[in-house]
Amino acid sequence: MTQESPKLRPARLDDLEEIGYISHQTGLLGDPIGRFFPDQALWADVFIRPYLEAGCCNFVIENKGHVAGYIIGSCSPGELPRWLVTRLPAVLLDGFRQGRYSRLAGCLPYLARFLVRGGARAPGTDYPAELHIGALPGARGRGLGAALMGRFLDCLHERGVRGVQLATSERNAAALRLYERFGFRVYARWRSRFWEPYLGIPVEHLRLVKELA
Question: What's the CATH class of domain 7-211?
Fold first, then answer.
């Protein structure tokens, strides 16, 4: 009996829970964020759903019927802000009505800091696309990130997008190697105190960019 190979496919809205789980398990600069943001359902609705509903070039790698890695993005600077204004309030209201956010109170300090976090961005005219990528800890080192990134960048090329940007940190060495391999370069660096309550130290953040056209 042959073993099923991992399958790269477009992400769907019904992948929200599994992508949200991976993101929640890696949200603390690669480590689980649950201690500081205990509600995984709220995390998925706030940080993942916007891309699945309003973004572009979203893909997952599925292994044995479950999502092992993902890449989600947007193709223009206005896509996600519009969604946050027009759609997020209804999503959150539905979540409250359904009792999905059972651990909301423990998330409020993080959300309050996130809303005022600041940071450098590259011009949206030159780098309109943005991305987030992640994989289950046990699935790392198997080429999933490279496969996802390659397909994502191909998708942007097909759409005629001229550039892409992303944010990461100096602590994420494995991701930095992946980004360098695909030709991303540092656009800006800044030292942020955002993570200090969670890690005990400030963290240097990086804004990376890549020209596509």
Answer: alpha beta
